[in-house]
Write the structure tokens for this entry.
Amino acid sequence: MEPTGYYSIHPKFHAAVDCIIFGFEEGELSLLLLQRNFEPAKGQWSLMGGFVEEGESLDDAARRVVTELTGLDDLYMRQVHTYGEPDRDPGERVLSTAYYALVDIKKYDRELVRAHNAFWVKLPAIPRLIFDHDRMVDDALRFMRYQARVKPVGINLLPEEFTLTQLQTLYEAILGEPIDKRNFRKRIASMDYIEKTGRIDKTSSRKGAALYRFNREKYDGNFKI
Amino acid sequence: MEPTGYYSIHPKFHAAVDCIIFGFEEGELSLLLLQRNFEPAKGQWSLMGGFVEEGESLDDAARRVVTELTGLDDLYMRQVHTYGEPDRDPGERVLSTAYYALVDIKKYDRELVRAHNAFWVKLPAIPRLIFDHDRMVDDALRFMRYQARVKPVGINLLPEEFTLTQLQTLYEAILGEPIDKRNFRKRIASMDYIEKTGRIDKTSSRKGAALYRFNREKYDGNFKI
DNA sequence: TCAGTTTAGTGTACAAATTACACTTGCAAA
DNA sequence: TTTGCAAGTGTAATTTGTACACTAAACTGA
């Protein structure tokens, strides 16, 4: 179609994806981080990442990388930002696109995670990360918080069925502030796409708590931004 | 530092930036678009774009590209998204990062724009664009609208000093809906970082309208979101 | 000079949304 | 049967957002 010479006078670069993998447990957000037992930056902490391959879209690369580490498919992932400073990777020039992923922390493949020398680290205890990964985490967290304020994305961090107390604790963790229980439940009650399953969770209280579920069809029908 | 072999087994890609350049005139948002008199896709409409060069960051590349076209420096620009589908450019594989820029439409360099065969096109009249540039415009517009709702970014589309009527017309154009004049002025009055200059604009009314200015120091001091 | 035209500028009442706040219920274990 | 524990529930006050119409100033042209 076009003369390939048009493109070939311009440089090419490695393209990578780095994934900020969020989990939720014990009332706190966690990240799945690698203590790198491989080069470059062996021994240091980093995000899970990987290079984009021929014929693979950025989104697919990000998905592949998270699946490689967790064994999970069907992930909620969103692109955050692309980092393109010439010296951001001290080895060679690499353009890296950050994605965040939301994961049900009960479900990941422990073997795969162990094999990668990866660990869930609670947010306040995040160690210093290599390159510009600290900044990626900041940006992803800000973006995820924004999205959680306007869409029920956080639900992807919980199991299929969850109690309202779990949901509230999750939102407190995401937003970083306590929420009034009655106001919270009033708001949830007004969302018809969060519906009672009729089943009861007995693990965390003697009385038992009603289990709820996210109804995607009802939600998509409403599309309140 | 690291063995370069680590990187070299992975493919490299062209990296481009494409810029959604917004202007504001006669109560409407416009985009600065190219009617391409060069390959590829000669004859079709596209965004202004360019390849990322060695040693140049993504942000710098986007800035350079907009400056090449408009002669303007000191631009308000934000990264929108990176598009990485393998076949998005039918010529060769190119990863493209979209940026939006806000430009005072009174100030650009007409010679440069003419030389590039570029034209300001009002939003509702945007033609079909090449590749995935339509989607880039959609995404940029959505992102810019969101930002305009929470920060006074739109002010970058106006001259240094502006009347409240201009500002209201701008926000009506950005949000795509009419705004009540009294409520609008009430809201602006509560923002101490939009301050009267004491000067009067006589061009658009016999009575004359007070000129206002954005005070960055006061705004940064407040950091409301 | 006076009537007409044009845009700037101003306040109040109502509705809606958000916030603050404390006790009762049901169940199981001791 | 008593105790402990988390689940579940309503109302009043405040804040925020929305609807709405006239006067003021200055120039123009008859």
